[in-house]
Amino acid sequence: MSNRRIEMHEYCQIIYRLQKGQTIRAIAREGLASRDKIKEIKQVAEREGWLLLGALLPDEQKLCSFFDKTLKSRQESKAMVHAELITSWLQQGIQVRVIHQHLKDNYAFEGAYNSIQRFAKIIKDGDVSKLTVPLHFQPGEAAQVDFGKGPQLFDERTGAIEESWFFVMTLCWSRHQYATFITHQDIATWLNCHQNAFYWFGGVVSKIIIDNPKCAITTACYYDPQVQRSYEAFAQEYGFIISACPPRDPKKKGRVESGVKYIKRGFLPLRTFKSLQDANRQLQEWVLSTAGNRTHGSTFEQPLKQFTEIERLKLKPLPAIPPEIAVWHKVTPYKNCHIRWAKCYYSVPYRLYNKELWLKSTTTTVTIYFQYEIIAMHARLFKDGSYSTQNEHLPPKAKAYLEQDGTWCLQKARAIGEATSFVIELLLKDPTKDLIRAAQGVIKLSNNYGTIRLELACKRAIHFSSVSYTNIKTILANGLDYHMVDIVDITKNTNAVYQGEGSFQRQAINNNEDKK
């Protein structure tokens, strides 16, 4: 009884009963206050003349000045001397104990810790900055979106147990909702959930109110939040406005916050899920039965009935052709002239190395932009580590290396002559080394020396068993090919057995020549 707060109207009753002659013991038996408290009240009443016959009882406002301990403590508190400093520190989030110790150490403060604590409570109680006003929406005007943490679930598609969340979109007017379990919170999942929700409702609201998830907002800001490009493009396709709440202010989307709590408390407990897919089937059935047909605590209406009869008719129509979901990302090419996206690699023009590019990914294609111009387009890859390379994107040397393969070298060599073709075949058949570059180099010598001289140089290299790129280039540089005009073509008179390292041994074809 002694710790119970006595209201002002109870002070009035006690004084009235004392004025009428009731004893302290009798008043205490009725439970209005303890005997000590009534005795204290009687002393004040006698001093102020309230117990005199015919005296008017004081009003509650006047009684406050005598009996309100909160008011008295505020008037008498030693903390009032440092009121401005304490208020400033409290607004900065500094703890009361730290403030009290700092005042003792630096301001010779002699008051108790409780005096600072009481003062802090007065400041907190008087803070109106966090007061809220309920928002009201028209049918079809807005929906609120949020995530909630779900249980671990077996995913039939991956064959693994995955962490899960549930995505919730709640219509602000009817409180009808769409909910689904997911295993990722990436951009593609975020957009897919929106699209599925719109088709669940059969239309689109004018505004989507969201928190600040990374899949939607790249930079959270009270005044100027930066929306993820993928989400912004998606909103344009479906014709709704994105409304991001101020950072750390979930009360701005209280309807969906309540919806998330309702699923956690009303759906998840005491349920068994065979898999992620089974959990989603159960959740959708629950939304259309238990959740949809309950009497909502704020609207006092059934959400599903309100949606079916009124709000569904107010939604904007869905696009005639569902827009293809596209995910946008900033990317920078590697030195190998490829960018990486979703663990796969796609080539871009080599001249754009180290430039900031935009990548647009759909379920079928990957398109890459530089300053709003398409500079590459690839079929979407799905196997981790796979490459999609277009040769025209590569630097000249790399492009030439890939395009001028063994088949190309043989075709060029045959067009030049038999000796050149013979040399190229020998180089490509080396049993221990890859001499494709040597073969390419031999063919390119015709650019500087012409095909006729290259053919003669190859004949000389064959004749002296010194087939290599370096030797052929030396023959041409020193003009030794001119001495090969009268030499019999070894490719026509001998079988050349290649031994590697550019050398071979000649074997006579004519048996009669062996006998000689």
The stretches of 5 or more residues where confidence is low (pLDDT under 50) are 490-516
Average pLDDT taken over every residue:
86
Annotated CATH architecture of the largest domain: 2-Layer Sandwich
Distance between the termini: 138 Å
Task: Provide an overview of this structure.
The chain is an alpha+beta fold and 516 residues long. The protein folds into 5 domains: 8-67, no CATH class; 73-125; 142-314, Nucleotidyltransferase, domain 5; 327-394, no CATH class; 404-513, no CATH class. Helix content is 44%, strand content 17%. The chain is built from 20 helices and 18 strands. The chain has helices spanning 8-19, 24-29, 35-48, 60-67, 69-76, 83-91, 96-107, 113-125, 187-201, 229-238, 254-266, 276-293, 303-314, 396-403, 406-416, 418-428, 436-463, 469-477, 490-493, 511-515; strands at 142-149, 153-155, 160-162, 165-171, 177-182, 207-210, 217-219, 226-227, 241-244, 327-331, 338-341, 344-347, 357-361, 365-370, 373-379, 387-388, 494-500, 503-508. The strands form 6 sheets. The chain has a 5-stranded mixed beta sheet, with helices on both faces. The longest helix has 28 residues, at 436-463. It is elongated. It starts with 7 loop residues before the first helix and ends with a helix.
